Amino acid sequence: MSIQTLIDPFGRKHDYLRISVTDRCNLRCIYCMPEEGMEFEPAEHLLSYEEITDVVRILAGMGVRKLRLTGGEPLVRKELDVLVAMLSQIPGIEDIALTTNAIFLAPRAARLKEAGLTRVNISLDSLQPERFKSITRGGDIKKVLASIDECIRVGLSPIKLNVVLMKGINDDEIADFLALTMDREINVRFIEYMPIGHHDSQWKSLYFSLDRVFEVCAEKGWSYEAASSLQGNGPSDNYTIAGAKGSFGLIHPISNHFCKTCNRLRLTADGVIKPCLAWSEHYQVRNVIGDDEAVRQLFLEALGTKPESHEMSRHLLEEQTTHTPTMRRMSQIGG
Fold first, then answer.
1. For residue range 271-328, what is the model confidence (pLDDT) as tens digits?
2. 72 assigned binding-site residue
């Protein structure tokens, strides 16, 4: 019997799975979750490492080659290197990345690398210690910077820094972030603030177009060119400033959505398949783990409902959307 591949109704081939291992986080970033009032899944409701590995084994047989571990903050989950080691031994899996706030990363980076982790994306929305503490509601930027140095040392590369640009909060730091790419092989990715789980006036007031990044380059006299060879799975348009060792990227889901090339599915910490980040459609896979064919069919069913676009730009224009937006926060989905 031939195994079906993961192709959606619009012909997009899916070879990339984002796996949330927890909905908990040690920080409370202002764009990700409220300061108080979040209800987290009990530990017994989370997929075990064995269950996650079983799902990935099946999907690898359907063409999945790339994985990303997310949260919440994935490093609040104990012994994450054990899961990385289990996943890295699955035939067909070629790339395992991690998205993290990096507060806990420095002492664990070497062990994760040895287990089979390929790369890291680090969330870093300000280079100013007090502003960083305010955005994250308590984070210590020194620990993040130490983690970046350690990842470079152990060879977790390329390192990507995820910077969510927000109007009036950190939009004056664009040049400082670009300067990081001059003497280090770092990819700084500027990301538009997305309305995930809260389509409210705060999001609209903080939304900031990424065109400003090119304007800053012009003001500084920095010439740049497209960089097409950067390793990774993301939807970033990448550029290199002349003479720089690193690069910068733009991820603009609102102003210039990347849905035409979407190749990703999501598995949440509580066992929900999400074919699209933005919409409410979801499928509970946990109850069929152990039945390989049932898992395959459920992923195919989920993929069959994947819409052509997330339509986030319509929120900005206050236009009606064709699907129901998710009310799960980013931390509950896994980004």
1. 999 988 766 778 999 999 999 999 999 999 999 988 887 555 555 555 566 556 665 5
2. yes
pLDDT digits (tens, 9 = 90+) for 89-121: 999 999 999 999 999 999 999 999 999 999 999
| 71 is known to lie in a ligand binding site | no
Euclidean distance between CA atoms 274 and 127, whole angstroms? 33
Q: Is 266 one of the annotated binding-site residues?
A: yes
CA angle (190 as vertex; 171, 35 as ends), nearest 5: 70
Distance set, CA 109 to CA 20, 102, 121 (Å) = 19, 10, 12
The CATH label, of 3.20.20.70, 1.10.3210.10, 2.30.110.10, 3.40.50.720, for the domain at 16-333 is 3.20.20.70
| Residue 262, marked binder | yes
Token pair listed for 251:
């991820």
| 151 has binding-site annotation | no
The annotation status of 217 as a binding-site residue, yes or no, is no
Distance CA 215, CA 200 (A): 28
Distance CA 173, CA 150 (A): 24
Is 137 annotated as a binding-site member?
no
Q: Tell whether residue 29 is among the known ligand binding residues.
A: yes
Question: Which 8-state DSSP code applies to residue 101?
Answer: -
| 8 Å CB contact between 25 and 56 | no
User: Is 265 assigned to a binding site?
Assistant: yes
- Asked if residue 31 belongs to a known ligand binding site, the reply is yes
